[in-house]
Amino acid sequence: MIEFDHVSKIFDSYAAVEDLTLTIPKGAFCALIGSSGSGKSTSLKMINRLIPHTSGTIRVNGEDVTQIPVETLRRRMGYAIQSIGLFPHWTVARNIAAVPALLGWPKQKVDDRVRALLDLLQLDPRFAEKYPHQLSGGQQQRVGVARALAADPEVLLMDEPFGALDPITRDTLQAEMARIHRETGKTIVFVTHDMDEALRLASQIAILDHGRLIQLGTPREILSAPANDFVRDFIGRDDLGLKLLSIETVAQRVHPGETAEGAPIAAEASLRTALSILVARGAERAPVTAADGQPLGALHLDDLVRK
Ligand code: ADP
Ligand code: MG
């Protein structure tokens, strides 16, 4: 658990973060979101003391971070950033193993860990002996995430890690992050300026503006009750309905036992996907099937669009 308790950061006389109070529960995926300069990176870096806060208290599992030796604190937290920061003259394996090596892990344990992480990030085991420049941007970013996870930290801090990637690679890595979060249950604090990314990944979204917390909530809470016009604009006013559809699945709206004509839609598809399928087909209804192909019922266009 990470707690910000009335935390401020003043640079010279400028408040980059002002009176931030926020609790990130253990195992949460918290997205810090806001426009450029809103204080996202500063908030993140205060957690592992890359930036010292000016006032207030930051606690990790109840411990004041200023009372934890900085090396100990950082070892408990993986850190991944957009610019990746891999060492160019080190192999992928050595890059991933940087922290375990520092901790003096025995060689066999380090090798096993590198292999397990390459597997977790779906990187070819043969990449271990390659150098960063021999990999694509997306592969390098995966190595950056693997390195952040190497010493099995309690917390993962990520600062716009996929910001520089093309949309398809970003989409793939977002899916990987969702899976890694599910599989490891780690507490993740994730900075982004992309609302779709936050809605897709986060269990908790904190919206910052000019160093202040404007709204905190689940994706559904933020979409269904934006705190003010700033949040509404940030989500994209015209897009609100579609975004709400994108966080719900077909399973949530299926009419059980009904039948319909046409190719079935998967129950786990988002309602947004289902809407575009129905519109493209010009159909009022479509059959819905479970992952194993069992028919579940039908989906009605009327339930997705307000008349
Ligand atoms: P974000 O990550 O949301 O884009 P930052 O947290 O990096 O924003 O920065 C918040 C504000 O603090 C910005 O106005 C930025 O210019 C200012 N700032 C950040 N770092 C420093 C610094 N080292 N010295 C002075 N001002 C800074
Ligand atoms: Mg930033």
From TrEMBL:
Keywords: ATP-binding, Nucleotide-binding, Transport
Listed GO MF terms: ATP binding
SMART domains referenced in this protein's UniProt entry, alphabetically: AAA
Boundaries of every ABC transporter domain copy: 2-235
Cited PROSITE patterns: ABC_TRANSPORTER_1, ABC_TRANSPORTER_2
Keyword Nucleotide-binding recorded: yes
Pfam families given in the database record: ABC_tran (PF00005)
InterPro entries: AAA+_ATPase, ABC_transporter-like_ATP-bd, ABC_transporter-like_CS, CBS_dom_sf, P-loop_NTPase
Coiled coil in keyword set: no
Family annotation (PANTHER family): GLYCINE BETAINE UPTAKE SYSTEM ATP-BINDING PROTEIN YEHX, OSMOPROTECTANT IMPORT ATP-BINDING PROTEIN OSMV
Family: Belongs to the ABC transporter superfamily.
Protein name: Osmoprotectant transport system ATP-binding protein
